[in-house]
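User: I've been going back and forth on whether these two constructs are worth ordering. Before I decide, could you fold them both?

Assistant: Sure. I'll take them in the order you sent them. The first construct and its structure tokens:
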Amino acid sequence: PVLRLLEAQLQDQRREHEEEMEALRNQVDLMQEELEKQQQAFLQTLQLSPEVQVEFGLQQEITRLTNENLDLKELLEKLEKNEKKLKKQLKIYMKKVQDFEASQTTVPAERRPHERNMQVAVQRKEKDFQGMLEYYKEDEPLLIRNLIT
């Protein structure tokens, strides 16, 4: 039974290997055909006059730049769509933050001082104050209320 299983696995691997080899051969054939076409085009351009060679080179460069430009436009469109999506998400999150802040101001009074004291205690553990107090201007009413209580 083990030998049959190993033989079956070996045959499966051999079949996969042969399929991969065939795909690679086809790919090599296509590349060879493309190379031959490019060589023929190159030989034809060498037979042209210098002015026509320059014109042909310019046409090829214009084609290349046009394709590159189209790729960049496509990328720009994707980035703009992503930007719009992110802006919408930001608005949603900002609304949630505002709703959360509004809900915090409606918390019953007996819970708020305890939460503030916990917050102040955490701040004191994080910093070593030495006579001066640093705060944001918008935190001033909260600071005054905490000092009074």
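The second construct, handled the same way:
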Amino acid sequence: ALLLAVLLWAPWRALHGAPLTELSGDQDFQLFLQRNLEFTRKIRGDVAALQRVVCDTLQLCKEDELLLVRQELDIAQAPLEQCHRRTFQAETCFSQIRAGLRIYHGSLATIRALLPGHAGLVETLQLDMANLSSNIQQQMEDLGLATVTYPTGNQDPLPTFSSHFHHQVGGFFILANFQRFLETAYRALRHLTSL
């Protein structure tokens, strides 16, 4: 029985640091991808729900009508260029997804302040984001990829707005940027399932 355990364990150890093409047939990795595609889809749905609330309650619905105001705002946009280049790198893409989730996790406090009646949805969203980030970190560790541990606590200052209207428009763009970020992250995870 011990020999069988060693034989079953050894191939998995050999996968650590293996090129991703070799991992594409790995069941644990495929399971991770499927589970987190679902998770990302759920988070996108929650962001869309908040976008509908912003549209219904604040009458902020169309991005092109708000572009002039946007120029006056300092809204962070998390980069994900490592996730859609032709030279796709899973390690850097995963790291960028985690860094972006951290940025948006913090900036959702702006949305909670804007929509106090929907604080429960914002908190659920933040919890899901934290779980997705930790799933990705765990998977990176399992694959022997380098991980960056971000300090807990919110290190990034929240954007400040000069008026209530700017706060509302800022919230609109935080959600719009986050939705685009999630779409790219989703495509990246889906791309990994097809390698």
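Notes on the second construct follow. Residues 1-19 have pLDDT under 50 and may be disordered. DSSP finds seven helices and no strands in the chain.
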